[in-house]
């Protein structure tokens, strides 16, 4: 049980006219070694939820279990560094956190803060930059003069270099071009499959959820509305629509085909498989 | 960051909130001037009563004023220490070895403390009940007469409103960057000197970068919508003085006149 929320509540600006309850009695268990998507409308509490994972926000009520730590409401936990090393949090538009003179130094900043030696930090920074697809020629450039997509990759490398067990990403692909998005999602998928990292992604993109994630958490109005397998979640497109979620293209295509008399097996989850399925039936009747 | 109270607008529904910003600004200036007349304790009591009444009418809480006053306390302690060593007039109150505390040192500090408290109360009455945008509209109108001597009233008002508009944004941005860097292991509370300097640098650089970026975006957005400084512009919101605004101005003027009388003619 690496991550669990037990009756967690959180209030912003408590005791002022701006008071706002962002989380209400959240109970949630996140499985180890899986990619979990957190979806929900703006203001549903997604970002507040993920900031509890490395104790940037502390619960107002209830408790959060992360790895072997328990953070209870009202506690003033110490030694949060060790937790933050293990839970790498990438914020929305993380390129705003870049500040060093060179890309390499910026990426090495995290590991150094967590006590790695200069050499070790540089080594890990180089590995992380390789993972996000930035070659040696970028090492000595200023991160501030890169393009938006490259900055994003440097920022994400900065978290990867810390080698966290759990990786939490708040809309990591917002504002990236389609190729960049694809490359980024493949990277997270590989981190999960090859290195066994537990990954949490906050996203609005159902295609990403469908193609890369294992589990889906739907947040609504500060609480968890649904927490289930991805396949179970998308098997009922009408239920998705009721929550204002547009099912992915492939699911909608399957729906249309079924409505028009095609036989489509439920286990078809790739475009190629669906194309084969259509071709077979067209030939048969053709 | 969320607990900075000085100068913050508090959205409530009260007669003071509804008043014309021009009247409020003028009244505040009149009373602020009044505070500086040496009208003695009676004078301060009158101003205190008037300010308290305004605070009650505006439905603000006194704890809010107290929070705004807190940052001043350190300054007052500092001032008291200096006064205690430099002011050697009045009656000796207390002797410790070769050091003697005189009554004037205590009274001087108290005078300043009371004046500061009154100023905080009165300025808070204005800033907590006036939306920043209304405030700049008011300032622009009040500066209009000075356009004859080439005071760029509109530009000044625009500058102020842009600056005010960016304060909450920059606070949010700072919080965001703090969180992002804390996630990378920055520890703002402890650490060696070099680590602390690094930590602060890791906040300041991104903050500057994004502030400049925002400024540029805003300038472009304004130009794209045809903004040209110095041009004649019309206004969506037209301010109008009503009966209660004149009453407020009259009260403020009466307080000022009263203080002058108490100070010089009594």
Can you offer a commentary on this structure?
The complex is a heterodimer of chains A (286) and B (266). In chain A, 39% of the residues are buried. With 286 residues, chain A is α/β, with parallel strands linked by helices. In chain A, the strands form two sheets. Chain A has a six-stranded mixed β-sheet. Helices cover 40% and strands 22% of the residues of chain A. The model of chain A has no long low-confidence stretch (mean pLDDT 90). In chain A, helix 3 crosses helix 4 (118-131). Chain B has helices at 15-18, 21-35, 40-57, 62-86, 103-127, 132-143, 153-183, 193-224, 243-265; strands at residues 92-96, 99-102. Chain B is flat, with a radius of gyration of 23 Å. The termini of chain B are far apart. Classes of the chains: A alpha/beta (286), B mainly alpha (266).
Topology:
The complex is a heterodimer of chains A (286) and B (266).
Chain A: E1 3-12, E2 20-30, E3 35-39, H1 46-51, E4 61-66, E5 69-72, H2 80-86, E6 87-90, H3 103-113, H4 118-131, H5 148-160, E7 166-170, H6 178-195, E8 198-202, H7 206-212, E9 215-220, E10 223-229, H8 230-234, H9 237-242, H10 249-259, H11 271-285
Parallel strand pairs in A: 3-8, 3-9, 6-7, 7-8
Antiparallel strand pairs in A: 1-2, 1-4, 4-5, 9-10
Helix pairs in contact in A: 3-4, 3-5, 4-5
Chain B: H1 15-18, H2 21-35, H3 40-57, H4 62-86, E1 92-96, E2 99-102, H5 103-127, H6 132-143, H7 153-183, H8 193-224, H9 243-265
Antiparallel strand pairs in B: 1-2
Descriptive tags:
heterodimer, A: 286 residues, alpha/beta, Rossmann fold, 2 domains, four-stranded antiparallel beta sheet, 11 helices, globular, B: 266 residues, mainly alpha, two-stranded antiparallel sheet, 70% helix, 3% strand
């Amino acid at each position: 049980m690496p991550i669990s929320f037990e009756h967690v509540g959180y209030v912003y600006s408590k005791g002022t006219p701006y008071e706002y309850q962002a989380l209400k009695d959240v109970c949630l268990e996140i499985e180890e070694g899986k990619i979990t998507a957190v979806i929900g409308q703006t203001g549903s509490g997604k970002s507040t939820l993920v900031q509890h994972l490395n104790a940037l926000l502390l619960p107002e009520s209830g408790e959060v279990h992360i790895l072997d730590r328990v953070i209870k409401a009202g506690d003033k936990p110490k030694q949060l560094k060790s937790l933050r090393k293990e839970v790498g949090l990438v914020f929305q538009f993380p390129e705003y956190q870049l500040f060093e003179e060179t890309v390499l130094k910026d990426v090495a900043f995290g590991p150094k803060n967590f006590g790695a030696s200069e050499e070790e930090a540089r080594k890990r920074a180089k590995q992380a930059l390789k993972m996000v697809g930035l070659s040696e020629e970028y090492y000595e450039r200023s991160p501030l003069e890169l393009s938006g997509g490259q900055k994003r990759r440097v920022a994400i490398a900065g978290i990867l270099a810390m080698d966290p067990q759990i990786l939490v990403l708040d809309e990591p692909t917002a504002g990236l071009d389609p190729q960049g998005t694809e490359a980024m999602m493949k990277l997270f998928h590989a981190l999960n499959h090859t290195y066994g990292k537990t990954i949490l992604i906050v996203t609005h993109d159902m295609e990403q959820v469908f193609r890369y994630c294992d589990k889906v958490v739907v947040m609504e109005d500060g609480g968890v509305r649904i927490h289930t397998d991805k396949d179970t979640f998308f098997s009922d497109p009408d239920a998705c629509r009721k929550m204002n979620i547009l099912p992915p293209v492939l699911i909608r295509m399957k729906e249309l085909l079924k409505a028009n008399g095609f036989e489509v097996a439920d286990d078809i989850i790739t475009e190629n498989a669906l194309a084969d399925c259509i071709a077979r039936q067209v030939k048969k009747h053709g | 960051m969320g607990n900075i109270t000085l100068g913050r607008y508090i959205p409530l529904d009260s007669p003071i909130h509804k008043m014309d910003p021009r009247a409020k600004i003028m009244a505040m200036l009149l009373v602020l001037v009044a505070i500086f007349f040496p009208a003695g304790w009676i004078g301060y009591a009158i101003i205190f009563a008037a300010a308290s009444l305004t605070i009650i009418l505006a439905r603000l809480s006194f704890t809010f004023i107290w929070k705004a006053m807190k940052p001043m306390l350190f300054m007052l302690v500092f001032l008291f220490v200096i006064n205690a060593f430099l002011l050697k007039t009045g009656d000796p109150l207390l002797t410790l070895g070769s050091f003697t505390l005189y009554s004037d040192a205590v009274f001087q500090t108290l005078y300043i403390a009371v004046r500061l408290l009154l100023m905080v109360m009165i300025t808070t009455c204005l800033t907590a009940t006036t939306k920043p945008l209304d405030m700049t509209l008011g300032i622009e109108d009040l500066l209009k007469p000075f356009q004859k001597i080439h005071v760029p009233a509109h530009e000044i008002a625009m500058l102020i409103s842009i600056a005010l508009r960016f304060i909450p944004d920059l606070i949010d941005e700072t919080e965001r960057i703090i969180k992002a860097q804390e996630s990378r292991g920055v520890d703002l509370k402890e650490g060696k000197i070099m680590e602390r300097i690094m930590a602060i640098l890791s906040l300041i650089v991104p903050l500057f970068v994004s502030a400049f970026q925002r400024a540029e975006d805003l300038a472009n957005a304004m130009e794209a919508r045809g903004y040209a400084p110095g041009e004649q512009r019309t206004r969506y919101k037209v301010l109008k003085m009503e009966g209660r605004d004149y009453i407020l101005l009259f009260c403020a003027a009466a307080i000022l006149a009263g203080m002058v009388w108490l100070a010089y003619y009594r």
